[in-house]
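ok here's the first one, seq then struct tokens
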Amino acid sequence: MSGEVTIPSMLIEELRRRGLDPEDVVLNALINVIHLDPNIVVEARLELAVKYLNEGRVLIDKDPVQASEKLYKAAEEAVKVSGLRKLGTRHGHYTCGAFMRRNSTLKM
């Protein structure tokens, strides 16, 4: 199930200018504000991964560049799900950024 929320265009532009994905910012804000159970976060991110995967498949022949962007986002969500599943519920509420800072040799 998908819902639609209107965010002022100036905020969308500012997020993109800062290199942030508006959907991801909104999802992370919701996760942190209402302290979602990690299992619900996993399900939400899986839903996004499937959405992006299906959108990418449709675009492969029409617009390969946009298709690759959608497929990249599907893979990105799948990696986030993998990380969240690795943490499980024993670590409480984790954002993907917190997971990456804790478990990566790369600096964020």
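and now the second one, same deal
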Amino acid sequence: MKKRPSQQILLSEVQLFLAEKRTYFPLLRTGLAVFGLPLTILAFLVATIGYHNIFDIPWVATFSVVILALVSLIGLYVTY
């Protein structure tokens, strides 16, 4: 005969699942916001390309791309 878990154990497992879910969703939201920020900045830079020449100061462009990539990676890490 198979032993069935008590109702109290099942209730505590459901509460644990809901607590993990409440913790995960804010973390997911934060990760997506951090990941989306560099994409927004990059889209702004591309949209205003007519007002500046990125090839005049290549170190600024390189620095910007590296920083944006790092922030995107942090966002992906938090989301994953």
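notes on #2: Helices lie at 7-47, 58-79. Residues 7-47 form the longest helix (41 residues).
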